[in-house]
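Long-time lurker, finally posting.

We've been working with Menorin-like domain-containing protein (Cimex lectularius) and I want a structural starting point before designing mutants. I don't trust myself to interpret raw outputs, so I'm hoping someone here can both generate the structure tokens and explain anything notable. Sequence follows.
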Amino acid sequence: MVPSMKQAGEPDETGQQSGFECQREEMSRKNVLYPFVFFILLPSLSSTETMPDSLSNYFPEINDDLTKVTWAHGVNSREKLQRELNGSAMMIEADVVLGTLIGDRSQQLIPIMAHPPENTSDLSLEMFIVMFLDSQAAKGMKLDFKSREAFSASENILEEHLINTSYQFEYPIWLNADIIRGPVNSKKEPVDPDFFLSACVTKFPIAMPSVGWTTEYGNGIDTGSYTPEIISDMTEALNRNLVVKPVTFAVRAGLAAQSYDALTNLIGSSVPGTTLTIWCSSPNDVTDMVLLRKLIDDIGVDKVYLDLPPDMMEALKSSAGNLIGKCALIAATTLLALGKYGLQQ
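Top reply, 14 upvotes:
Generated this for you. Predicted structure of Menorin-like domain-containing protein:
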């Protein structure tokens, strides 16, 4: 009679698990606890000389509170760029698509600053960078690439003006793309993750990779979250492309508020210096501000950027009071219950 195969972790005749089985079970438990780790020890690729600086180093006045970083969003025209270069925002964000430059008779497709579905602009990517450099403004730039084609066409421009140049710049550069299909069953096409990340690692090591998920939210959709599955898709892409430096994960506010466990686990198990950038660009997004406030507070303001409209920032400040009020109410209720219990003894 052929003996049956013993399952992993099943005790033997003595009631004891084998050393190998105990080890495998322990590894399995660790994988459950830390499914999102993408910290790879590769000394040859982790030179601090190529690591992007934290914005706390560039803007010491924020005292390591990244939620105090201010943003100018959608700076996609010459007039708006000039205004923001002279304004108070610390970071200037602009969108990059393939399109045509207004006034260019050739109608050649080049990287321009515009947000889909727009495909014309009076500001090209090259003009944006030159104006930025010439201004010598003490600000950072975040370039949001809306397609693989837009990023591919931008690489030579980025290398020429930001890498292969004698210009000594000391400002933060972020390169952003939505590289993974995300919630809620998003049908938007992400930027190819391997194409984007490999370029960030090999060509633009001084830039901070800002990576996100495509999303389908608002306009009647108010329930959804960043699930462990789509977060795993992201961290697998980072591992696959040997991303050993910190990144910032761009997450949509309404969805982030519903993703406490997944996002706290993600940041807690990632490379030191990794952050969240919580964003919202639509007034139709339903966001639980109390839950969002709790997420920010528990992850820590030294690990969370807020790129939110002014009204949401005000609501978030108010929610801090609501959260404190709820905690105080719970504490008071508990003390009252304990008091009643004591009187009954």
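Before you design anything, note these points.
Strands lie at 71-72, 91-101, 110-113, 120-121, 140-145, 173-181, 208-214, 248-252, 275-279, 304-307.
Confidence is low (pLDDT under 50) at residues 1-49, 323-335, 340-345.
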